Amino acid sequence: MLRRASNALIFAAILAIFTAPVRADDRIEIFDAHLHYNWEPKPFYSLDQVLALFREHRVTGIVATSRPNDGTRALVAAKPEGLWVVPFIRPYRVRADIQSWFSDPVIFDLVQEEFKRGYYRGIGEFHISGRAAAGDWVKRTVDFAVVNDLFLHAHADAEAVEILMGHNPKARIVWAHTGFSLETERVAAILTKYPQVFGELSYRGGIVDGGGKLTAEWRGLFTRFPDRFLLGSDTWINERWASYGEIMAGYRAWLAQLPKEVAEKIANGNAKRLFGR
Ligand SMILES: [Zn+2]
User: Fold this and answer.
1) For residue 200, what are the β-bridge partners?
2) 70-78 vs 47-56: helix crossing angle, rounded to 10
3) How far is the CA of 157 from the centre of ligand 1 (A)?
4) From ligand 1's centre to the CA of 178, what distance in Å?
5) Distance from the CA of 1 to the center of ligand 1, in angstroms?
6) What pLDDT is attached to residue 4?
7) DSSP per residue over 183-195, as a string?
8) How far apart are the CA of 92 and the centre of ligand 1, in A?
9) CA pair distance 251, 229, nearest whole angstrom
10) How far is the CA of 236 from the centre of ligand 1 (A)?
11) CB burial class (10 A; 0-12, 13-18, 19+) of residue 15?
12) How far is the CA of 34 from the centre of ligand 1 (A)?
């Protein structure tokens, strides 16, 4: 009798565990604005694995790019529940295109052709530095983006950002890495001069000190320009996929040191405002 009673208790306890309401996920939701789902010839993680990874780390939106564009097409076609996919056209077929896309008419054809799919919101990430940005095919790419309401996702130094904006002042740039280690005064000057430039923060140095504390200069920049920053994983190599969770945890660690409304804008609000329609 006693044994039967304790069995019933155990059963009730197990039932309670399985029917308990799921605790709300209070981690800040993240939009990953610099993601490469490269497909050469297969992705590092299968589509199911990568979607599970986003769910696991509460990434609810992504700028999807891929070299070649197959990975982006697969992400769009998956119509994943709970994940907002914002596709950008990658102007690269193979890695070597990084060095030559900006003077290669074949790449401009690729961009125009891929655009016909009808769902793209930007072009990039592309790499450009200094005077190389002044080239004719770069100007055509910038103009094509403006005419078709596309963002440019530019891995560029300050000089190249200036040249890109000089090609067409209506351009909108997601500035990959925000100048890496460029002095914050210069970052501030660019953000002030070009209201349509948005800093994406993967690999950006100086945000936290050795102890993980947000530095005064970056706290200042975030509070002065709360509407101008985005987060990104930059999964350009497989190691970045392997450490995806750590990258997101790293962002959450310094976001938690900012006022809530600033943190929410950087984590996801700015992306929603920019890419929503
Ligand atoms: Zn990248």
Assistant:
1) 230
2) 70
3) 14
4) 12
5) 66
6) 56
7) -HHHHHHHHHH-T
8) 12
9) 12
10) 5
11) exposed
12) 6
- For the chain, residues with pLDDT lower than 70 are 1-23, 277
At 248-267, the pLDDT tens digits run: 999 999 999 999 999 999 99
Query: Residue 24 Cα, ligand 1 centroid: separation in angstroms?
Result: 32
Answer yes or no: are the C-beta atoms of 233 and 32 closer than 8 Å: yes
Q: Note the pLDDT tens digit of each residue in 110-129.
A: 999 999 999 999 999 999 99
The pLDDT score that the predictor gives to residue 6 is: 58
Structure tokens at 245: 């969770």
Q: How far is the CA of 84 from the centre of ligand 1 (A)?
A: 19
Structural element, H or E, at residue 52: helix 47-56
Which tens digit of pLDDT belongs to each residue from 87-112? 999 999 999 999 999 999 999 999 99
Q: How far is CA 123 from CA 140, 145, 152, 160, 240, in A?
A: 12, 7, 5, 16, 22
CA dist., res. 149 & res. 253, Å (int): 34
- Whether the ω angle into residue 68 lies within 30 degrees of 0, i.e. cis, is yes
Q: How far is CA 132 from CA 13, 137, 189, 204, 221, in A?
A: 67, 10, 22, 23, 29
Distance from residue 233's CA to the centre of ligand 1 (Å): 8
Q: What is the pLDDT of residue 10?
A: 54
Determine the pLDDT at residue 7.
61
- Ion ligand 1 contact residues with beta carbon within 5 A: 125, 234, 236
Separation of CA 220 and ligand 1 centre (Å): 26
Q: How far is 122 from 132, CA to CA, in rounded Å?
A: 20
